Amino acid sequence: MKRMLLTVALAAALLLGAMAARAQDNPVFNSVTEYFDSLAPLPADSISARVDALVMQGGDRERMSQIAGLAFDYFSSSPVMGHDAVAVHIADRWFLNHTLDWSDQATFPMLYTYAEFNRLSLIGKPAPELNMESFDGGTVSTRTGDGSYKILYFYDETCGTCREQTRQLLELLKGYDGEPVSLYAINATGDRTTWKPYIDEYFATIPVGRKMAVYNLTDPEDSNDWRRKYGVLKTPTMVLVDPDNVIIGRQLDPQA
């Protein structure tokens, strides 16, 4: 603990020096970024604790706000899975409750949206249940495949990137021979004139059986609030859920 506090204190000193320099190509600023980089292997809650300690080293409200803002920018834009939980923590702990001041009030709604569209689908969270319209008729729950791994794949059939990722996903699933998997292919538009040809071209080609189930679903009016619950701000979006309905992967691509 003592060593951690000394490290945080040093990082705080470097960060405050960088702020005084007001230049992001300043070597001091880069040293602080390297401190954040060094936290990458740690669990999200451990990183959050260190960030909080760093913020509190700032002393006055203005400097604390600057430190917290810099940390939010770093972790919200990080490509490392799980760092989004750190960013949500920073938003909740320091800014959304107005403990500290967000630097630009014009972008405060974006901060709020980021937190709201990420908090329910973070790694380790229970996967929110969705009850959606099936292409074949009726309603299907995303808990239908309990006991299997679940892939929630949100796509738009008019999206070129979606087509490419759908092809990659199919290649993976066609050769899959592991634990049982349920694929929930969730169409964002609900337009049956374009939805059916897409199903026929892609999802209908997946061999279903004891280890593979495919559900073609939609909820174009978002009555399930699925965009917020699963952080679907763009398509395609892919979420992986374990047999206990716990989220174990998000913002994935088929290679992951």
Q: How would you sum up this structure, described in words?
A:
This protein has 256 residues and is α/β, with parallel strands linked by helices. It folds into 2 domains: 2-116, no CATH class; 131-250, 3-Layer(aba) Sandwich (Glutaredoxin). The chain is built from 9 helices and 7 strands, in the order ααααααβββαβαβαββ. The chain has helices at residues 2-21, 27-38, 44-56, 61-76, 83-95, 108-116, 160-174, 192-201, 226-229; strands at residues 131-134, 139-141, 149-155, 181-187, 212-218, 237-241, 247-250. A 7-stranded mixed sheet has the order 2-1-5-4-3-6-7, with no helix packed on it. Helix 1 packs antiparallel against helix 2 (27-38), helix 1 (2-21) crosses helix 3 (44-56) and helix 5 packs across helix 6. The longest helix is centred in the N-terminal third of the chain and has 20 residues, at 2-21. The relative contact order is 0.11. The model is unreliable at 1-23 (pLDDT under 50).
Query: What low-confidence regions span 5 or more consecutive residues with pLDDT below 50?
Result: 1-23
Number of strands: 7
For this structure, what is the CATH class of the largest domain?
A: Alpha Beta
Number of helical regions: 9
Give the topology string: H per helix, E per strand.
Answer: HHHHHHEEEHEHEHEE
Structural class: alpha/beta
What do the pLDDT scores average to?
87
Distance between the termini: 35 Å
Total domains, how many?
Answer: 2
CATH fold-level label of the largest domain = Glutaredoxin
Question: What best-fitting shape do the alpha-carbon axes yield?
Answer: elongated
Question: At CATH's second level, what is the architecture of the largest domain?
Answer: 3-Layer(aba) Sandwich
Strand content: 5-15%
